[in-house]
Amino acid sequence: MFCGNCGKKIPDDSMFCPDCGTPVKRVSSQSVQKAEAKNKNHKIVGIIAVGVLIVLILVVLFSIFGGGSNYEKKLVGEWYSEDNDDPEFIFYSDGTCEIDNWSGACKWNVVNDDQLKLTDIWGESRTSTIESIKNNCLTLRDGDRAAEYYKNGK
Ligand SMILES: [Zn+2]
Fold first, then answer.
1. 150 alpha carbon to ligand 1 midpoint, in Å?
2. Cα of 65 from ligand 1 centre, angstroms
């Protein structure tokens, strides 16, 4: 016969399972097989749950760190040009920004993957190409003129 708790085969005259110590109930091998099948189902459900969890974690990580063309999160912060102690741009995560020579709160966003669009309080906008953001160095290009800015000072 088999132990009702752990399913191990035990001698027919046992009072307790020698393996787990459970008092013996007389169980047919059929119900032991059922118990094993149930355990198998639990394992499958567990594996699926772990898989779903891993996918969710990847989705969250991707949304935090973004894809290659997602510049917006990298742009949030203060950017300084090489020869100026005051920040040239301050980009806020709510889409507003401060720009050195423009008064008041301006708006910023990234359009067409790599175009930094700055809009002033009068609705005038200008667009620069984001050439790269590497090691906290932002390279902006206007036509054939490129400028570098450094995040939070050099
Ligand atoms: Zn047992």
1. 68
2. 50
Distance 34 CA to ligand 1 centre (A): 16
Count CA atoms closer than 13 A to 71's CA, side-chain side.
Answer: 25
- Going from the Cα of 2 to the center of ligand 1, the distance in angstroms, rounded, reads 8
Judged against a pLDDT cut of 60, whether residue 151 lies above it is answered with yes
Q: What percent of the chain has pLDDT over 70?
A: 86
CA-nearest of 60, 62, 98 to 77 is 98
Parallel, antiparallel, or unpaired for β 102-111 and 115-119?
Answer: antiparallel
The CA 50 to ligand 1 mean position distance, Å, reads 29
pLDDT tens digit sequence for 3-48: 888 988 888 888 888 889 988 765 556 666 777 788 888 899 999 9
Q: Residue 100 pLDDT more than 90?
A: no
Hey, what long-range contacts does 2-9 have (CB within 8 A, 24 or more apart)? Answer: 2/27, 2/28, 2/29, 2/32, 3/27, 7/32, 7/35, 7/36
CA of 4 from ligand 1 middle (Å) equals 7
